[in-house]
Queue: 4 jobs
Job 1
Amino acid sequence: MSKKTTTTAPLLTMLNVHIKGLSDETWVDIINGVDLDLRRGEVLGLIGESGAGKSTLGLAAMGFCRDGCKITDGSIEFDGLDLLSQSRQQLRQLRGRRIAYVAQSAAASFNPAHRLIDQFCEAPLKHDVMARTEAEIYATSLYERMNLPDPDEFGYRYPHEVSGGQLQRAMTAMALSCRPDLIIFDEPTTALDVTTQIEVLAAIRDIVKQFNTAAIYISHDLAVVAQMADTIKVLLKGDEVEQATTPKMLKSPKEDYTKSLWAVREYARAEQPPVTGQQPVIEINNVTAGYSPRQDILKNVSFAIHKRRTVAVVGESGSGKSTTARVITGLLQPRMGSVSFAGTPLPASYQDRSRDQLRHVQMIYQMADTALNPKLRIRNLIARPAAMYLGLSGRALEDRVRDLLRMIEMEPDQYIDRLPSELSGGQKQRIGIARAIAAEPGFIICDEVTSALDQLVAEGILKLLDRLQSELDLSFMFITHDLATVRAIADEVVVMKDGDVVEQGPKSEMFVPPHHPYTELLLGSVPEMDPTWLDRLLDSRGADNIGDAAIARMK
Amino acid sequence: MSLFSVMIWLPVVVVSCLAAGWLFQQALILLVNETTAKFLRTAPLTACFGMLTIIFYIIFAVFAPFIAPYEQYEILAGAFEPWAYPYVLGTDNLGRDVLSRLVYGARNTVGIAFLITALAFIVGTVLGIYSALRGGLIDQLFGRFIDVLMAIPTLIFSLLMLTIFGTSVLSLVLVIATIDSTRVFRIARAVALNIVVLDYIEAAKLRGESTAYLITREILPNSMAPLAAEFGLRFCFVFLTISSLSFLGLGLQPPLADWGSMVRDNAELISFGDITPLIPAGAIAVLTIAVNFVVDWLLHRASGLKD
Amino acid sequence: MNNLLFMIVKRVALGVLTLILLSLLIFLSVEALPGDLAQEILGQQATPEAVAAIRKDLGLDLPPHIRYVNWLGGMLQGDFGTSLALKRPIIDLIAPRLQNTLFLTLYTACIAVPLAILLGMMASLFRNSYFDRISNASALSAISMPEFFVGYILIYFLALSGYFPSMANITPSTPLFEKLYACFLPALTLTLVVTAHMMRMTRAAIINILALPYIEMAHLKGVRPSRIIFRHALPNALAPIVNVVALNLAYLITGVVIVEIVFVFPGLGQLMVDGVRFRDVPVVQASSLVFASAYVGLNLLADIISTATNPRLMRRK
């Protein structure tokens, strides 16, 4: 965090900016009159849920609008230049040279046809900032500073030859290629795993501080923004909610909306005591499985889930959490080992399972959009399992559907005849839950059910699942990469890495050391709502003992 | 008519076509309910003109006996009579009324093309979706086999097959439908492949649903938009193919009136500066253009209204 | 680099396999003919002895798999059998006509390919402008017209007034310039149809790429629009465009048949159509195989070029 000098003139001033977007042939408001001030060397965090207009506002700071968007009112002034009255050519002179951009998906934002170094050098050469050799030397020094492997050779690779976390750092380096005055970071770590995110965050912050560059840091994750920003601005549906310095915003938010965003983090249900001496509902015994005979994704995985308990399975992408779910549901047959339900082994393939066995294992998916057939009405979506498994029909079926809708806190008369496309994301997820409990199962797999939702909505879903568990005696397996969710809902935790269970036990023990080194890294990498968290982490672990580097040390 | 006068008339024709399309669109919007009207307003004028034209063709096909002044087989006068009452468009090489044959041609050519497309669609869609759903070896085998069949250009393949099976209407229908179903298979499989990976299909499988239920209730309703557009495209292809075959004398056989063979029968008139053979050819072109305009609009909508 | 080589070898092997399967299909479909070739040659009144003699002569008494191997082996050595209708070796019929057809196809390709790519790029650059809309509607119309319609219209306007010949009567000994002049109308007909297809597909390929995030990134780096097209979009559009070109050249092969009939052009298509009319089975078999091989070959070429220009495949970690 840079020390601000409040006397200098603002670098970027946005006044009463209005932006409209074309949606289904009509212009709708995306940003309705937002003001923004940024001084040299200052980092501003833009926080908001999806659809708040953060990215649109960020791009507007470069005088750029995506196709189907237009700035209809207001002024944007960058270092004394009115961006809205500049010609295209004048804007091109600014972009890349004085204002740079770091996109969310580095993998998609690098041109696959050119080497990284060529893409790095493009802006300095085109803007006549540096000669080619000079730019290459500068690139190497930036790569080194960002802890990229083999900095001398790194730039000569193509984007597809480099990992996601490295690409994101390479993109930050590219943004710095002309030593700009302002960089827009548009959710640069959202697509990354937590342990990788740390490396990128540390690199970005180090470099921003080093060059005293002003930045707008866009994210939906408050804890991340808290590490990066001096000031935080909260947006809601194109309107500014409030703005304050980071410590002040974290400690004493003024508006109700902001407070509710903060409060989410504090939800946690009481952990239930471990069960002993009882037959588990689901038992996974020494399962080894993979998609090809040569490569096992799961290696000798075992754990059990008891009645009315929630087991959170935690791990990063590629750790085998979802594969475990596929083995339990019977979509993937294990090479060795088996899965039992209430003491009886389940047939390996779902096609060989009886209707009752199918009924007892239900699933709720991450993307509610793709989990519901878009052409079926809510009535039919929920009625199908009830009719199939429980033989309900006619009046009884209709009543059951209405009961289920009430259980998920949706008014039957209002929603029963709608199509999924007429519901919000959270409502769709509730319908997914209703469909699962309509089968009256004993066990439900929740696959990242909250990660595609905004925090407030996600919290509602977690509370609903919690309530249904006690009302219906359900057991949950909760697949997640988000430790806040684990804290909120789990009784027991299973930590997976590369197809192994590295640690398992009750939640209360998991959050207290000592840990397996990987668990420790994973826990330590989750950003906290404390502006000094990243500093403390880097102090305690050391700058080269985080992320991939730390994982490499474990081997 | 000289090339120069065409240059003058062409824009006039285009503008009046678009104007007709506009009038048709406005009339439709007044007649239908709000949601359909909103949908119709997104249609470009070319698509409106297309819809209007298609309706015209359907009317001609359905009411051919009432519209045509004579029977399609009737030999009425000498060969190649000029354009004069009572044979408004003259007579053909055998002395049959060209106008009547033109009207009946709408029924024969368009009808058979439609039949073939429908047949190809039923077979291709069901097999394609089934193949995508099953995956694995069955999908591989189907896919390989279809690839081989598709490696022969349509017209060449149909020529080969018609040599073997003869040129009756039945063999024409079966041969073209079979060849075309391979193309439909490919599209249906590709569309279905995008759907079968979605979670709601997984959920349905895990619920224990049958393959028939999966195809008819879960996959088909969600592939209607691309398949409908594809139906239009395939229809154009089939229509052009059978017209081409007829033109080569290998499609619909006389004495059935058919546009392709009408062009061929009267082709020699061209060298005398008589445009009679161009009229059936134009009839083919206009219908195909109309269908393509509508399909283009539907495809543009399906691609998510961007660009 | 080894990866690329492996890829190409795999594609070629697949192409050869497809051709073998195709030849089998063509061979077997003739087997399914009611009656047999001997009967066909001699007609209904032939004595059984005569039929048996000619069967032996043609090797029809051998089991099918041996006949297939002999047939395919003959084809590979240029022995395509004898025409039933013309009683001449098929190779003598095919060779000059194939040459003519290839000439016409190449002639068309030379006009159509650059024209289509240029128009397609312009349409994608000026997306949604009037130029784009008009060219799109005209291309759609051109695609929708049967080749014989376009052909006769051109004859009506350009041949009747005596600018160009309506009959493209050429022989291998015709001088090049005269050939180009004689074939102008058939080539123009094919060009109109193929250009429309190719232009639309090129436009779609480029527009797909212009919507990608790395193009937005280039804009945000302050790169000039022309540089964005040539440096950022084109290298990635190359593979789809090459595919489009090959696909349409393959499509030309079908179009060529109709155009040859309209302009009485002595090409392979006309030979095949005559073969079908007289049920001259060996001729139809041979010309289908030639057409299909050209089609498969072009698709294979497209596949290889688009694989070779994909940087992801050129160098793998």
Job 2
Amino acid sequence: MSVSLNFSQFIPTIPFILQGIGVTLKIVASAALLGFAFGIVLALFKIGRIKLLTWLADLYTSIFRGTPLVLQLMIIYFGMPQMIGFEIEAFPAAVIAFGLNSAAYISEIIRAGILAVDSGQREAAMALGVPYPLMMRNIILPQAFKHILPALMNEFITLTKESAVVTVIGAMDIMRRAYIVGGDKYAFFEPLLIAGIIYYILVMILTMLGKVIEGRMRKSD
Amino acid sequence: MIKVVDLHKSFGKLDVLKGITVKIEQGEVVAIIGPSGSGKSTFLRCLNLLEQPTRGQIWIGSQEITNRQTDMMKVREKIGMVFQHFHLFPHMTVLENVTYAPIKVKGMSKSDAETQGMELLGKVGLVSKANEYPSRLSGGQKQRVAIARALAMSPEIMLFDEPTSALDPEMVKEVLEVMKSLAYTGMTMAVVTHEMGFAREVADRVLFLDGGQLIEDAPPNEFFASPKSKRAQEFLEKVL
């Protein structure tokens, strides 16, 4: 058996693969934003007093955690046009699928974070006449986020890596481009390795970013 | 003025308050004492509806707060509360703790709130800590900030729930001094406390609770010199 790795022939293709970073980041950032915002709403439903909303939020979470992400993505991209009567582009389909999926996970993280805030904080806010929405926004959630930042970063890292499944709907992300290059040259190992390195560096940057934010939030300790 | 009529509170099957009727006049300082589990904290927490009474009425001034139509948030603005464990907002500086509610709840401008905040911090002797976070303060300092925070809403009534119980002994005095000077300004105060010295010296009346009932209601000199009930006698023997 002979090992024949030849990276030199792939050097010209690297800019093409690197262009995928923009696509990946756009999908991840939009999905993270959507997932985070919707995750907060779901978490508030879960801890709220309205039983119907709690039930709906729990049901939502159980469905999105209980089925494969790639299936959710394919239902939205390939399946939904049948229902709504028009095609969905790969980019919005990916953002919606990843956003809705991570909202389910993020809502659980945020719920745990809210419950971990000392109940005295709520009482102190109530005693000052602070209305519920303000109390959540200014007092409870900021403290909850400090506790859950590592878990939240974890979720964003997972999202970055899992975004590679958009390949199945043809979005031109890092993964897809590496795959195309591989097909072009009849050699997959090298371009996939390059893609792997790019993902790893992205995740490392994300990890560092998380540490910086965490450090900044610690200033009140 | 606070008027409480036949106040009951149960947690499940446990009856914590069994019909308390009492009146606290404007400007009065009332010390609420009694053995642990007597319901004194629950009683205090009912006065701003942190606990929802099971039965009975509470009036703050001319407003019946136990009436469901009353906007509780508005009422709470008029009632300051100080907790045993301070409950300062840990992610805000001392000054931000004191200015948050006036700005967000009352709509005071930031600069007005800060001027008032610094004034209040002056009164509790903590101007130098204005920009520190609560984690850098001692227990006594935290409680003084908590008092300033409550006062920043210009309340008509102040409730204190065992304000010195979580403090190291050497810090009790600084908090009691602040409370004492507050009492002399004519603030209406209800204080759940184990500090018999404070009750004796500062309070106009002592309410002795036991088993969810108001057993005695008397001026401190009378109460401490000659408690009428056997339960109060036994309690005082243990604590004095």
Job 3
Amino acid sequence: MNWTETEPIISIKDLHKSFGSLEVLKGISMDVMKGEVVCVIGPSGSGKSTLIRCINALNDINSGSIKVEGQEVHDPKLNKLELRKKVGMVFQQYNLFPHRTALQNIMMAPVKVLKQNPEDVRERAINLMTRVNLTGKEDSYPGELSGGQQQRVAIARSLAMNPRVMLFDEVTAALDPETVKDVLITIKDLAEDGMTCILVTHEMGFAREVADCIYFTDRGIIVEYGPPSTFFSDAKDPRTKEFLSQIL
Amino acid sequence: MIETITSFFLQLADDYPRWNFIFFYDSFQWWRLVGGLKMTILLSIACVLLSVVIGIVGAWLQGSPRRWVRLLVQGYIQFFRNTPPFVQLLFFYFALGQITPTITGPDGWTEVPLISNVGWAIISLSFFAGSFNVEIFRAGIEAVPESTREAADSLGFSRFQSYVELVMPLAFRVSLPALNNNLVNLIKTTTQAIGIAVPELLYECVGIWNDYPSALYPTMTVLFFVFIILVGILVAGMHKWEKSMQIPGYGAS
């Protein structure tokens, strides 16, 4: 695959996905360029989470295509490890490994999966802890950290794999209001450093601030998309207008 | 010291003929008992370890993407869990023992079976307890949230890496109380090895009271006493282990 940076880093074409008889995604197309920050918003059950789970093959798809750096994600011959090195993911419920300390959580994948030198990884993990503003919590277990702290460890854990793209699946939805901010600041720093990010979020203020492009999904299709400057002020589709009127 | 003990039990046997602790003053009977105890400990340790290994491997195979592998494990569990362990023991020794090859013994001329009665006892009891262990670990594995496994997937862990690094360490902690019960039962079940003449504690005790009916009560007392101690050691060890594996801020701590 001769992917170059002038092409989209993620390219989704006519994606269909069903769970049994329930069609969740009904033909989604989306291009994301390197360094872009994309927010996906929409009512519950509109397929936002399913969409980003398909991008790193946590869900398989029924038809269509998803390419990451020109590589088809749902090619049966695809080396999943290669994909997952490129695409990091952060979950709503953090999903840290409860039997490992914060630092060990960050180190595990690079050491066990990528077989990197533990000493080097350790140094990098300590730097990542600083980057997510958790210096001093290296030896805490996830159960000893607040939700916001756990989520930041989860972000650092993903970053330790040096991904090209980060997916965030409603990462602040389970947090106390006062810890949401710390997590959002961490993501904003990442975005400003040029990381390509796709976020499913309900934080409209945040989306307006960091996103280059906002997609609104409803009932399995992309209803409307555009840069935040125009998206929030003059949405065209009545469904978008209704959704925005309810939450803004 | 020893003389005081022997003379005490000699006197006791004289005064109360039903309480003839013969093994406390007759050195031959004493060493019979010690030999039996050693064999019981050997069986217990070997079967505990092997049955746990069977449980871990079986639980791994049970999650296999291949249907026939899962069916095989299911068949194994149904057979070993649903039939009497004593019958299994006899089956292994008498039926399978018939068709396993023999080798030339240490004396250079007798043919001895490749797997001795002790070997068959260990194999049969381990597979019996192992079938329960598979189910015990499966319950533990099911308690590990799917989302935690997904996190490992998304970090590029293979199924095996995820099992070793994440699923089993978490499942094991959940499984320990149930595992504990099964291993206690296993240690007690080693006495069934008497059925194929394995010289463990019960075998030697029966031997002693057959030779000296007056030693019936004492040998039974010793049997109960020894198993209370053996199981007590196991339970204390498991409890300590469980404590040491507790995760701060996770579950009951």
Job 4
Amino acid sequence: MTLTTEQPGEAPGRTAATGQGRWGGVLRELLRTRRAMVGILLILALVLMAWIGPLLSPWEMGERDFTAFRSGPSPEHWFGTDNTGRDVFTLTMVGLQKSIIIGLLVAVLSTAVAAVVGAFAGYFLGLTDKALMWVTDLALVLPSFLILAILYPSLKDSGWIMFVLLLAAFMWMVTAKMVRGMTISLKEREYVLAAKYMGVPAWRIIFRHIIPNMASLLIVDATINVSSAIITETSLSYFGFGVQPPDVSLGSLIALGAPQALAFWWMFAFCTGLLVVLVLAVNLIGDGLRDALDPQAKRRS
Amino acid sequence: MFLVRRLVNYMVLIFLASSFAYLLAATTLQPRAYFEQRQPPPSQEAIEAQLNDLNLNDEVPLAQRYGVWVSGVVQGDFGQTIKDQSVNEEMSRKAGVTLRLITVGTVLGCAVGISIGAYAAVRQYKRFDRYSTWAAFIVLSVPTVVIAVSLQVGAVWINDLTGKQLLQYGGEYTAGLDAGFWGTLLDRLQHALLPTLTLTISLFAAFARYQRNMMLDVLGADYVRTAMAKGLTRRRALFKHALRTALIPTITYFTFTFGVLLAGTTFTEKIYGWHGMGAWVVDSIVQNDVNSVAAVTCFMAVCVMAASFLSDILYAWLDPRVRVS
């Protein structure tokens, strides 16, 4: 999976990209896959919608329309209104924003932690490896949903950033194990050995040589983590352990809409639909990226 | 020998995980608040006495409470719930519900997912492959919560449409039903259908995708060609050589996803109103019930460990190289 870095010319179609570097080639490869294109377009559309939508809507976030409770979609309220007369369109857009931000932050954070933990464990092996992998196993055994649910209510006051940190703290383990495995094979490579015998300190080798050489794995994993972060966030918020009012996320909106989904479908359908589209788009990009970065997997697409 | 060492390691991890959960729950949850907001409000002394009885008093040092808890757990006693019932009894009642749901859901989900994935790989780029890939992709993007809720909404809709209680979507059985053995069995099955379906759907997608990719890696391999060249039928070659090899990474994957599956079960139980471990833990957190939370964590850790132990065994069964070394 990581061999791409050393043999940039090997992949068919990538030779044309010489001069623009590897990432230019990857980008072109990505744009050629229809699946990834669809994903990127969907994400762009959703991001635009989430940030421009509230500006277009005549209703503010906290504003209530006391003349219309639970009224269906109309020119006045594009997605209808909820129990207390809030505009569902505005709510959904703000929730979408939050879900996108949380997903991205959690993915970046957890992938970074995974890269550092895995690389250190794999590079030093021995005692460091034992200790770090042990912590990883422990974190894998702990039911993360439960720990998050216990911890978060007591940290509610610190806002949703704390929630992001907690989510990230329980998502790095699997990636860390993969990174460790890769590091063990990477550390025998000539360029790593050369750096080592030149007296480059270990942490520098890890950050300058080992982690950058796993970039493709890390990027693919970060993308996958975005979607699982969004899913976890939604589930936790559904049970009231996640994003707390007055903040809204897609999860808390689904929780509000689900019990009344049949009588007042607009309170359930829009947020659920957008959530599915969002995660689907992220997954499509992740899949496309994996194919673009991994020449061996090309035939899978 | 290897398995014994593994087992000891697992036990230590389980113990640490439960301890961690206990300490965390004991420091962040507030059982005192639970008693204080009771109607009518009990006297201060009564609260103290209750808290002391249940080993939940936050004025007793944490180390001491933890000590009491550990000495109980070592003897197999998880203490009392906040309503002064035995956690052990509650657990033995609820664990069965959860285990049944998980086992059926997992077996069905894995079986369906693996067969669809494997078949899709064999028919790569054909119609079946394309449809199943898209279906898996879409299902993968839907959180278990949303699957459960949507099925429920769908069930209500179908019931309204047919005018009958065709699909049950709440509880584990109809309360006070007296319909003999078959009637009860049918009733239980009716109630179990949707929750099991939820788990199966959410599992199938992940396994179908993973199995397809693994299978594609294997299909082009020399040994599969050799197997066919030496005269095996295509079907036999695929089953005995390709599928078997392709299952190995899938088993590792299963171990990793088991935690996610447990969380999914929690949501499913809670949404369908089953009184299992998952629903219990959500309620215990809301009720500040420290001992129950620790007990459920222990249960879940045991499940994760059992899953990874199982996958070790399956691994050894599928991959002869492991057995030799």
